[in-house]
Amino acid sequence: MTAGVVAGAAALTLTPVLIVAALFVFDTGAAVEGVARGFVWLVGWLTAGVSLWEVLGRAGRIAATAMASPAGTMVLIGGILTAWLALAGLSRVMPVEQGDV
Fold first, then answer.
1. Is the dihedral of CA 5, 6, 7, 13 positive or negative?
2. All residues at 6 or more sequence positions from 6 whose CB lies less than 8 Å from its CB, including other chains
3. Hey, which of 6, 31, 33, 88 has its CA 20 to 30 A from 40?
4. Residues 73, 67: contact at Cβ < 8 Å?
């Protein structure tokens, strides 16, 4: 796998998580407005003649650089630990049924 594919997959995975986190942290109106502005910018770039692959490639390079930094690595580790703790907590709270595998 190339670094671009990994960075693209990470970007596609983390973008919805960051949007949902922004809804909890910031005012909902501000978060929705920020997402809408991002889409307007993207459409503006595409109508101006910027290639979608160029935009995705640049976003992938930036994401790969950010994830390769120590701070980016810590953010990814923090996300993994948070998900692990959430799953561990849910497994203790959810009832176990006999027919389930």
1. positive
2. 64
3. 6
4. yes
Domain membership flag for residue 101:
no
Q: Provide the domain count of the chain.
A: 1
Give the model confidence (pLDDT) of 24-46 as tens digits: 787 778 878 888 898 898 888 87
Residue with tokens 């009832």: 95
Q: What contacts 74, CB < 8 A, 6 or more positions away?
A: none
Q: Can you give the pTM of this predicted structure?
A: 0.40
100 domain-assigned: no
**Amino acid, res. 72:** G
Q: Other C-beta atoms within 10 Å of 63: how many?
A: 22
The residue behind tokens 């909902």 is 28
- Domain annotation covers residue 43: yes
